Amino acid sequence: MEKKKHAPVFAIADYCNTKEIRSIKISSFQEEACTIAEIEEGHRQNYYEIVWLKKGSGNHVIDTIDYPYAGSVLFMLSPGQLHRIFPKEKAEGFVIKFLPSLFSDSKDMDDYLIKTGLFDNIQTEPVIKLTASVHAVLDDVLNKMETEFNANEEDKEKIMLAYLKILITHISRLKKINTSQELTTTDVNFSVFQKYKREVEKKFRTEHSVQAYAEALSIQPRTLNSLSKKYTAKTAGDIIADRIILEAKRELSYNSKSIKEIGYELGFDDPAYFTRFFKKQTGISPQEFKATEHLSSVRKTAVG
After folding, report:
1. What values do phi and psi take at 109, rounded to 5?
2. Which ranges of the sequence are coiled-coil (predicted)?
3. Is the dihedral of CA 64, 121, 206, 8 positive or negative?
4. Cα–Cα distance measured from residue 217 to residue 68, given in angstroms and rounded to the nearest whole number
5. What are 38-70's pLDDT values in tens digits?
6. CA-to-CA distance for 221 and 6, rounded, in angstroms?
């Protein structure tokens, strides 16, 4: 059996390299040279990404999970996610890619990228179906963004950032289903929990202890556990385990590394313990998951 290659990691300037790109770019699917990467192969990226498929149908595989789509849908992707689109019909829509450095104000970055929860790749599903009214609003904003991106004008990134904020605000408004969700953005405890999740994102490869994270946040482990259950119905330990498993699945599904290597990179010195941990969380061993994903990938590629 042929070994899988490493999934490529794209930078924001890859593709469309004839255009000046620093912190943000937007392309319609009509510009195939700029968007072919979404369809060509499974990949990861070092930027945030909003994919709007205006119509058509297909399957978007994100972190080994199938997200069949039809009609007008958005996909919200954060850096590091493994994904590929398998369209049944030619895609129409836009792809917006941006770096967190676009937000010069750290509070702005926190408000739009963290507090909205739109780019939470652990607790939030990455797909959002659009209503007809929101479809029209997004169409207007994204066409203006594309015009600005293609213009040879000074300070265009400032204008594109303003449009991006409008875009994220509309999407966030759509995502909020009830008042309790809206209140969490001003809840002090929710802010502490978000800090915990950011710490987990930074340290999950080397730190697996709830106690250590609680100490870093200057709170008690039981308090951290209560906050986690309040906002996700999961324990603080579950949050850590979910993040480890997500990364393990990414590595196992598109990588030539051994299971021992993957476990070691995720903080497990004992391969047997990593295997037991993985099976406890998923119900199957890493070996079984890897074999299943390989067969699934072959089938999807053949169909695509």
Report:
1. -60, -45
2. none
3. positive
4. 39
5. 887 788 899 999 999 998 899 999 998 999 999
6. 37
The residue with tokens 């609003």 is 137
3-state secondary structure at position 7? coil
Nearest to residue 96, comparing CAs of 14, 164, 170, 18?
A: 164
What are phi and psi for residue 98, nearest 5 degrees?
A: -155, 155
Burial class (CB in 10 A: 0-12, 13-18, 19+), 17: exposed
Domain range 9-182, its CATH number among 3.40.30.10, 2.160.10.10, 2.60.120.260, 2.60.120.280: 2.60.120.280
Model confidence pLDDT, tens digit, residues 244-279: 999 999 899 877 889 999 999 999 999 999 999 999
CA–CA distances in Å: residue 278 to residues 135, 153, 291: 40, 52, 15
Query: Distance (Å, rounded) from C-alpha 297 to C-alpha 292?
Result: 9
**pLDDT band at residue 17 using 50, 70 and 90 as cut-offs:** low
Amino acid sitting at position 290: K
Parallel/antiparallel/unpaired status of strands 44-45 and 9-10: parallel
Structure tokens at 184: 């969490």
Q: What CATH code is assigned to 187-303?
A: 1.10.10.60
d(CA 282, CA 278): 6
Nearest to 228 by CA among 271, 194, 204, 270: 194
Kindly list the domain boundaries of the chain, sorted by start residue.
Answer: 9-182, 187-303
Are 9-182 and 187-303 in the same CATH fold?
no
Cα–Cα distance for residue pair 160/176, rounded to 1 Å: 24
Can you tell me the distance from the alpha carbon of 19 to that of 275, in angstroms, rounded to the nearest whole number?
A: 46
